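Backbone-to-sequence.
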């Protein structure tokens, strides 16, 4: 609602911030040098202000939410501007370091600039918000909205809409459809309509949009109402009731094969995030495959001499959302390891649907070394290049482990499995409870970011170098 008008406010915020930076610069030069000159020193400062303006615009273009400015209170706005100033200062320090201009700068000038920029930004943003709210409240420019709801939820709906602080929206009229409350006042809004005279008040009053918030079981012909509003040329918004039992992280409307649907997801990454992760995987996969080729030249004869069998071991594992694929490793066990496993199940150190045991007799002498150093995992870089796996993710279960999964366990497979992950760097084989593994995997899925992947890759390198937890 009021989307086009809200965008005007967002653009004004950009203008305000640009004016703040330029104004702060001019005042800082005037305070520091008692004049506005065109000497070399002033030119130096102009170039850095240009860099800050450019970085500010880039931050807006790449995700800074200008809508939040209108939703924040005055105290919250103050803290938000402090964060922005810290980012600007970090950019300035980086720029000065890279261009080796730090010695030419007055520290006092920098302090004055950021203090003035904070004060001017805060004052201008605050004034703009007060002005926009007051202006649209008094004028005919705000979108006049008719709220259609029931008596038991009217107060809550009004509170929620006002909490969003959408200055371009004004609930001008209200209709209560479950009882006759015409003439009564709820949260400062007079009830003008009921089910019987709804279309009459919509026809006679100033009305830009309609917001309908009704319970699922309600004696109201919604389709007929929408049809009538459509004939009037009025925009209609329908509040969608979501069962409070659902705890999906993401809920949104989208087009699915020609159908308008509500999508529920515990964690969906957009195309840009998916691409970034795949680029990281591809780059790491190439480096890893080259390293694997070199390691193979060294390990292959040792593995062959140590025990009978192939150099590489392959096994069917379960990947993203149940997809099956062949995983590759350097062989670290005897050829009859799977048959031996049946007799060792009662010695499992892990509680749950994974098998690990101390002093596993199936592991060869060379196998103990390559497992401890994680060298056995290197052939999986080929799986990463193929797209079966990712550098970072959850570990893929074997078929027999997967078949024992409960429904809730499958969510740990909602991403591509990885060479490493949160639970591996949190203890690797030292963790002896499968539920703890699941908990850490879900924590990774729910908080995924490229930054987290890079952090876990670096932690994995430390864990492997220190030979911590490998078995």
């Amino acid at each position: 609602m009021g989307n086009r008008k809200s965008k005007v406010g967002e653009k004004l915020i950009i203008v305000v911030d640009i004016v703040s930076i330029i104004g702060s610069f001019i005042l800082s030069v005037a305070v520091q040098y008692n004049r506005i000159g065109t000497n070399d020193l002033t030119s130096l400062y102009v170039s850095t202000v240009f860099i800050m303006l450019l970085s500010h615009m880039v931050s807006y273009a790449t995700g800074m939410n200008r809508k939040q400015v209108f939703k924040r209170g005055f105290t919250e706005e103050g803290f938000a501007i402090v964060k922005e100033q810290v980012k600007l200062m970090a950019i300035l320090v980086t720029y000065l370091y890279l261009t080796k201009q730090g010695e030419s700068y007055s520290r006092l000038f920098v302090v004055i600039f950021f203090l003035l920029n904070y004060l001017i930004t805060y004052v201008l943003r605050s004034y703009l918000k007060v002005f926009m709210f007051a202006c649209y409240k008094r004028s005919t420019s705000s979108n006049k909205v008719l709220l259609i709801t029931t008596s038991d939820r009217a107060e809550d709906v009004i509170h929620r809409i006002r909490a969003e602080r959408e200055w371009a929206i004004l609930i001008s009229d209200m209709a209560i459809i479950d009882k006759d409350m015409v003439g009564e006042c709820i949260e400062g809004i007079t009830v003008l309509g009921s089910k019987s005279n709804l279309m009459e008040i919509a026809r006679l009053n100033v009305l830009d949009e309609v917001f309908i918030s009704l319970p699922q079981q309600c004696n109201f012909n919604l389709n007929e109402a929408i049809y009538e509003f459509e004939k009037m040329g009025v925009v209609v918004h329908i509040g969608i009731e979501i069962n409070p039992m659902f705890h999906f992280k993401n809920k949104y409307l989208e087009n699915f094969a020609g159908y308008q649907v509500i999508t529920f997801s515990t964690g969906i990454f957009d195309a840009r995030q998916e691409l970034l992760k795949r680029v990281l995987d591809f780059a790491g996969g190439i480096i890893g495959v080259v390293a694997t080729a070199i390691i193979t030249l060294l390990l292959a004869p040792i593995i062959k001499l140590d025990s009978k069998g192939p150099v590489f071991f392959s096994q069917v594992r379960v990947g993203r959302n149940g997809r099956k694929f062949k995983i590759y490793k350097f062989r670290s066990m005897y050829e009859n390891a799977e048959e031996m496993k049946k007799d060792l199940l009662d010695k499992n150190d892990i509680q749950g649907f994974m098998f690990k045991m101390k002093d596993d007799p199936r592991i060869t002498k060379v196998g103990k070394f390559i497992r401890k150093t994680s060298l056995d995992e290197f052939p999986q870089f080929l799986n990463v290049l193929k797209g079966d796996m990712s550098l970072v993710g959850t570990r893929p279960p074997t078929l027999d482990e997967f078949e024992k999964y409960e429904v809730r366990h499958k969510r740990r497979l909602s991403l591509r499995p990885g060479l490493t992950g949160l639970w591996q760097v949190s203890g690797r084989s030292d963790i002896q409870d499968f539920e703890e593994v699941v908990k850490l995997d879900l924590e990774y899925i729910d908080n995924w970011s490229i930054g987290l992947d890079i952090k876990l890759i670096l932690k994995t390198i430390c864990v492997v170098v220190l030979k911590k937890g490998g078995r």
